[in-house]
Design brief:
The structure holds two protein chains of two kinds. Chain A has two domains: 1-125, 3-Layer(aba) Sandwich (Rossmann fold); 150-301, Rossmann fold (3-Layer(aba) Sandwich). In chain A, 36% of the residues lie in helices and 22% in strands. Chain A contains ten helices and 14 strands. Chain A has helices spanning 19-31, 57-64, 79-89, 103-116, 143-149, 162-174, 195-204, 221-230, 267-276, 287-299, and strands spanning 10-14, 34-39, 47-48, 51-54, 69-72, 93-96, 119-121, 127-130, 134-137, 152-159, 179-184, 210-216, 238-243, 280-281. Chain A is globular, with a radius of gyration of 19 Å. The model of chain A is unreliable at 249-262 (pLDDT under 50). Chain B folds into four domains: 22-93, ATP-grasp fold, A domain (Dna Ligase, domain 1), CATH 3.30.1490.20; 97-222, D-amino Acid Aminotransferase, Chain A, domain 1; 236-406, Rossmann fold (3-Layer(aba) Sandwich); 425-500, Alpha-Beta Plaits (2-Layer Sandwich), CATH 3.30.70. In chain B, strands 1, 8, 9, 10, 11, 12 and 13 form a seven-stranded antiparallel sheet that branches. Chain B is built from 16 helices and 27 strands. In chain B, strand 15, helix 8 (276-288) and strand 16 form a beta-alpha-beta unit. Chain B is an alpha+beta fold. The longest helix of chain B has 20 residues, at 164-183. Chain B is elongated. The relative contact order of chain B is 0.08. The two termini of chain B are 33 Å apart. Chains A and B meet through helix 4 and helix 6 of A and strand 14, helix 8, strand 17, strand 19 and strand 21 of B.
């Protein structure tokens, strides 16, 4: 098992003929993802890496559907339309890779997703991977790398930083711990699936035994994960690593999410809340496999 | 978030039909006098800076007459408050206040909606008020598809204890504030205090709007110079860096100066991160070693080599740094040799003298580290490349050792453009120009530039290296500015290729810096 995506998922790529769309379609296909169609208005009839291209998502659905997920690579200013088009056609999972998507566009996508019973990862995400099954997005960069860095297993990974998503998973693999699904939730202040929502999915997944979360200063995601644990809605062992210890309040770094608003969202607030509910806090990325090992040992596995 | 000044925010409110005090913006005491004279009533003078709690810092003062306004303004101009030097003062009629309320709009990341917050008690210290009297604070989440309906606002205000004509007046203001936020893509918009005067009129006495960085392009009328959140005006170097980002959308380049005034005391380093999370982790690692950051910089999202080059040049425009630390997550999806080549070119041009630790873990890190090792071994400084199996902590420790050993201090050098004869062969790229000295080509045995060129747009014609695609195609991006041809030719052949990647404003910036 895994969450959100597996080897059976049928996937389309919106913006498949663009620079990133083309390269990452290759990555997904080589990794084993079932990429059944691409969409670029005006480029219908063509092919990219043997994937047929259609003018609209509706057409892609008719010819290659039903479709489980759409990976979006269009320019930021066109993301809202692309996302609405996919949801209108019936796609229930979107992976929105581009960054710099205006926040009100994200709010609109989120509102419509609610109506349609859909969900989305991103924006500003590398995507996700269920090791050995499928990649959605561009995580790993190339298929050979994704195969080398990520291995199948029972640790779920959820991270707000793209690089850290890969880093954590790689260090777990090196230490002999495989992953069930690895999700980069995206670096922006408002994202579709945030940490708490991903935790709820991991809670439901029988295969996932332990979860690792990389959090950052800004937003309330990590505090809300603490709430979930308190309410017993998330009960699996959780290892958390929070970045931005040294960041001054009010200074914003590259991730739009990293804004400190009052005490909520600060490094101290997150660490305190998580510690209180029994989360295992890692001080550095190299601590993560060590803690995982201890947890595994305790479980006799 | 790109913050607007109070006077800009109020202009927007006024255009939307929200009542603001009569007044104007003064750049000199004389202008302050004229505005006060025109108002003909007691006035308030407010410095225009992005800081809260201005009153406590002497940034809000009153004057009974035009003459007094002039005198007070004289004292206020040039005042240093936080990181600002006061250069603009808003002069407004002084309101006769009966009550102060608060209204703010923020984006709720949990509910994924805009959230309107109203408090019947407002003014300074609103955060404490909200903490101590949560019963006075009311909120409504807003549906972005349907917007904020008037009756929703009236219900909110009734719950807050208001009634009658004031309720109606206030509800109009609240509804309009949401429209302002939506129209201008505001991440936050607040009026505090929202004043009810003795004559029962509602005024926005102060207002702050912060626009979503990612939507600034929709609002050219706002004249936002640098769409980043600053608690001070951007520095000249930050403006130069921002222009680089504006001119090249391949990947992300973010540059922030922590200080413009670096003492030569072996503590400051130039910081070059990659990716938000990895950068933060790396920054935590160097700060733990007792270093101070001269700047924070992030090049990520698969940036071109030319962009990384420019970032390095900008980082090395800071005098007195003692080391250069580049580090990301350690397992980057992007091809890391682009970053390596960008640094090779920059470090050579700068004739780097301070030690550099470059942690380039990720896709093709072996190749990236090899590039650094091969091409930087002969420069004055020690440059070491590391990969995904080296932790940020161990790299920070290594930098500490190297700095201890080298004891050198970075000196900023003038930007020089090599002499290129007018008839030299060249073609334009997306952000620069590639010159090839064809007189040297006959001595070249390998013609390796053709093979080095990753997009494969060079060919040999009559023994000379020339463009294989059209000039237009090269300029439109067929040439990816990977810098491989220049590096190959410089180190393995005739040093016949020169890639000019201008950074507007940097030459002047350094000239001034060196002079002073």
């Amino acid at each position: 098992m895994s969450i959100l995506v597996n080897e059976k998922s049928k996937v389309i790529v919106q913006g498949i003929t663009g620079r990133e769309g083309m390269v990452r379609t290759q990555l997904m296909k080589d990794y084993g993802t079932q990429v059944v169609a691409g969409v670029t208005p005006g480029k219908g009839g063509g092919e990219v890496h043997d994937v047929p291209v259609y003018d609209t998502v509706e057409e892609a659905w008719e010819k290659a559907g039903p479709i489980d997920a759409s990976v979006i690579f269009v320019p930021a200013s066109l993301v809202r339309n692309a996302a609405l088009e996919a949801m209108d056609a019936g796609v229930k999972l979107l992976v929105i890779v581009p960054d710099r998507v205006p926040i009100y566009d994200v709010l609109e996508i989120s509102r419509i997703a609610q109506d349609k019973g859909a969900c989305f990862v991103g924006p500003n995400t590398l995507g996700l991977v269920s090791p050995g099954k499928a990649v959605l997005g561009m995580i790993g960069g190339r298929a050979e790398r994704a195969k080398e860095w990520f291995s199948a297993g029972d640790i779920g990974v959820s991270s707000r930083s793209g690089g850290m998503t890969s880093a954590i998973s790689y260090y777990l693999t090196e230490a002999g711990f495989g992953q069930s699904t690895i999700v980069h939730v995206g670096g922006d202040a408002v994202v579709g699936l945030s940490h708490p929502e991903v935790m709820e999915l991991f809670e439901q997944d029988d295969e996932t035994q332990i979860v690792v979360m990389f959090g950052e200063i800004g937003t309330t995601q990590e505090e809300r994960v603490a709430d979930l644990i308190q309410k017993k809605k998330f009960t699996k062992p959780l290892i958390a690593f929070i970045g931005g210890k040294a960041a001054k309040s009010g200074t914003r770094f590259s991730h739009a999410g990293a804004i400190v608003e009052g005490s909520r969202g600060s490094y101290e607030s997150k660490v305190e809340r998580l510690t209180k509910v029994g989360v295992h806090l890692a001080d550095s990325v190299s601590d993560i496999p060590k803690i995982a090992k201890k947890l595994k040992g305790a479980k006799g596995g | 978030m790109a913050r607007l000044f109070e006077y800009q925010s109020k202009k927007i409110l006024k255009n939307m039909g929200i009542r603001v005090p009569e007044g104007g913006l003064a750049f000199t005491p004389e202008e302050a006098r004229q505005i006060a004279f025109k108002i003909g009533k007691p006035v308030v003078l407010k410095i225009q800076v992005w800081l809260t709690g201005r009153a406590g810092k002497g940034g809000i003062r009153f004057a009974e007459s035009a003459g007094e306004a002039d005198a007070v303004a004289r004292e206020m101009f040039g005042m240093k408050v936080g990181n600002f030097v006061v250069d603009k003062i808003l002069v407004e009629e002084k309101l006769r206040i009966k009550t102060e309320c608060f209204v703010g709009l923020v984006i709720d990341d949990a509910k994924k909606t805009p959230l309107l917050i109203f408090s019947s008690v407002g003014g300074t210290g609103i955060e404490e008020i909200a903490r101590e009297h949560p019963d006075k604070v009311f909120q409504i989440p807003i549906d972005v598809l349907t917007g904020l309906r008037d009756y929703e606002v009236r219900n909110l205000l009734r719950r807050a204890g208001l009634s009658g004509k004031i309720l109606v007046q206030l509800s109009a203001v609240l509804a309009k504030l949401y429209r302002v936020a939506r129209r201008y893509d505001a991440r936050s918009a607040e009026i505090n205090p929202l004043v009810i005067t003795e004559s029962d009129l509602v005024y926005a006495a102060d207002c702050h709007i912060a626009v979503d960085d990612y939507a600034v392009y929709r609002h050219p009328e706002l004249d936002i110079e640098v769409a980043r959140e600053f608690d001070r005006p951007p520095t000249r170097l930050e403006k130069i860096a921002y222009q680089v980002e504006e001119n090249d959308h391949r990947g992300t380049f973010y540059f922030l100066q922590m200080t413009e005034d670096i003492p030569p005391e072996k503590k400051y380093i130039g910081f070059h991160g990659a990716g938000g999370g990895g950068s933060m982790m790396s920054m935590d690692a160097v700060l733990d070693k007792g270093f101070k950051l001269a700047n924070y910089c992030d090049t990520s999202g698969n940036p071109s080599a030319s962009k990384v080059y420019r970032a390095a040049k900008i980082i090395l425009s800071q005098p007195n740094i003692n080391g250069y630390f580049a580090s990301g997550s350690g397992v980057a999806s992007q091809e890391q040799y682009h970053s390596a080549r960008g640094m090779v070119k920059a470090f050579h041009e700068e004739n780097l003298e301070i030690p550099a630790v470059i942690r380039l873990g990720g896709n093709f890190e072996e190749k990236a580290i090899e590039i650094l090792g091969t091409y930087l071994k002969d420069i004055q400084a020690t440059v070491e490349g590391y990969g995904r199996d080296d932790t940020p902590e161990s790299c920070a420790k290594r930098l500490e050792e190297l700095i201890e050993k080298s004891k050198s201090v970075h000196e900023v050098k003038p930007v020089v453009f090599p002499d290129v004869p007018e008839d030299r062969y060249f073609f334009e790229t997306l952000t620069g120009r590639i010159f090839i000295d064809h007189q040297k080509c006959p001595d070249c045995k390998t013609k390796g530039c053709v093979e080095a060129c990753s997009p494969g747009i060079l060919k040999i014609e009559e023994g000379k290296s020339v463009l294989e695609v059209s000039l237009v195609e090269a300029k439109k991006g067929k040439c990816t500015e990977c810098l491989a041809c220049e590096i190959y030719c410089k180190f393995h052949e005739q040093d016949a290729i020169f890639i000019h990647l201008p950074i507007p404003g940097l030459k002047d910036y350094r000239k001034r810096l060196i002079k002073s």
